[in-house]
Amino acid sequence: MAIECPVWLDACYVQKILRNAEQDESIEVSGITVKPATVKGDNYSSIMHRIGVVFSRIQKGHKIKKTTSLIAKVLPESIPEDEDMYVGFFDVEMSMMSETLPLMNKSLAHLGMSTSLSAKCLYAQHEDPIHLIIEDLTTAGFQMAEREAGLDLNHCLVAIRNLGAFHASSIALAEKEPTAVKKYTRGMFHKDHSLTLVDFFKSGTKTLAKQTATWPELSPGISEKISKLSDVIYEKACEVTRIKEDDFNVLNHADFWINNMLFRYDDHQKPIDYKFVDFQTCHYGSPAVDLLYFFGTSPSIDVLMQHREFITREYLVTLTDIMAKLECSTKPPSFDDMQDILRKNAFYEVIASFTILPLVLIDKSEAKCIDEILYSDEKFENPAYQGESYRKVMTRRLPLYDSTGLLDL
Q: Do residues 407 and 347 make contact, with C-beta atoms less than 8 angstroms apart?
């Protein structure tokens, strides 16, 4: 189904947004074009519109014509059973983009970092229609990496160093303004979330169990273990993400996978800059949440197998360096400490590879939107579990998970 432009999203509305954001009443919008900003499978919890804007403004006494591009991120209308959950996720993102991220970006800017963690938020509206208006990062050359192939080492290093900066700036902010960070308590996994979300993870795991039973390269016992895990997988995820006040904690992006990463490239197609997008499930807790979710979803299988420790060390180097520059009183973990943190929470990677990795590796022609996945009247079916790419990855991962006891109840 084609995405229709909202009736309220017109030139007059965009002019009001730009005038307020730029603090310039001379801005006059003469025309806009609105197109879908993503394709099916690239965004799972909102409707994204790209707005091309033609406008003029007065500069030094002269009327100057300009163009720009904005993104409107809108809460879907089709949320029949879980409006509170969706609105809650949107509230988190609006709070992150309009309040918390500007403070984190400001602290990093004081260190001389030339780039911000995220797009600039121009406007956030909490009432119907619930939406965000943000800058369009594609105009600055940012784009998604090719998700089906998985990230190579260069992409992983750019992403993980930025994660270190994200976490470090959140620690500095938590020390100065605790409520600005610690108010994010729910994330993706929480005992009070709706049964629809719980069923997404449980049903996906059951689908994987059935699929692995048809893979002769795996021991039959693996499929049986996955089937048993399906009944408790969401509860186990809630335990991993539950805040433990005495541990080393950060503000997690908490949906740190390839679809929520934008890269900018040099002339040789080497990634040189990075932005985080989609902040709907951010929450305060162990950094293992972001690291293990990343390992479970985003690197290519060869990079994960060969460079996991190196990537972890690069994260820790950046985290420690920026924490020191921001004069954090919190002590950063050592490498051994971080490895222990990751071991204790290792099941979180299993969860990500069971339920989110299929969305990464699905062929774009077979991708489903969130409504088709969550609210279908038919039996849960996701063709990603049948894909050859997913099978190749999981037949290498699952024996490792099994050998370390991660598939045992």
A: no
What does the pLDDT read at residue 84? 74
Place of tokens 């503000």: 251
pLDDT exceeds cutoff 70 at 1? no
Give the chain's mean pLDDT.
91
Within 262-300, where are the H helices? 288-297
Indicate if 271 and 371 belong to the same structural domain. Answer: yes
pLDDT given for residue 124 in this prediction: 94
Tell me how far apart the alpha carbons of residues 94 and 78 are, in angstroms, rounded to a whole number.
20
Q: Which run of H or of E encompasses 94? A: helix 83-95
| ∠ CA 306-409-193, rounded to 5° | 90
User: The domain containing residue 305 runs over which residues?
Assistant: 143-403
What is the structure's pLDDT at 141? 96
What residue type is 66 in one-letter code? K
Query: For residue 394, is it within any domain?
Result: yes
How does strand 47-59 pair with strand 28-36? antiparallel
What SS3 class is residue 48?
strand
